[in-house]
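JOB MANIFEST
job_type = single_chain_structure
chain_count = 1
residues = 254
[input]
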Amino acid sequence: MFDSARFVIVVFYLAVAIGFLYRYGLGVYRQTIVGAGRTILQLLIMGSLLTLVFGVDDRRLDAAVLLLMVGTAAHTARQKGGAGGDFGTALVAILVACVLVILPMLLTGVFDNRSSFLIPLSGMVIGNAMNTTALTLERLDREMHAGRERIEALLALGVRPVDAARTAVTGSMTAALLPSLNSMKTTGLVHIPGLMTGMLLSGADAVFAAEMQAIIIYLIFIGAVISSFMVTRLQRRVYFTDYDGLRRKQESPG
């Protein structure tokens, strides 16, 4: 049941935080206002949509919703990826991560294929893959340009592009995976995830709740690894020519 008084109190508290950001000249106050507005609007829209989808419980409709989520995530990752942002790369990376994480779990019966289970679980994987993809895109672009002279020197010595760029690739993947890794390390000690909290509040067995949450945390991390790996492989065309030379910064592939 929606509690208007509770919501108003929290919104007022948020407004105080935004006022603090404005007072100290932090430009993110504008983004905060937009983000707060988009949060409630998007949740209302998605809540209404999921109510319909859960009621129908049709796999084709599930697939359409998931594709919409992947497309939106790819667009967001491209924007957050800064100069290295590429929609095609982001789309493929997130889609592959989602498919390779979710499909085996459905085929082996680890998870129920009901809409009410499939879509929220996939949303967690997609959301985290989106953040990892954005971080990898941004960090890889920075590493490639910072190490340009070293990479060119290695290429001149006959080193393959994949080996010449290895430091940039490993550095970008490590940085992009740190948030997911830290979350996995601190789950249960520093914070209790929402899913486990909800299960405990609904009266579920603590061991069962912990098992389910651990499975999801592991799958989210696997999705992050897959998406980050895919980005580093797909972005090769952005930095190297068909003749294994390093592109000039202003050039675009093909």
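[summary]
The two ends are 54 Å apart (CA to CA).
Residues 58-239 form one domain.
exit_status = 0
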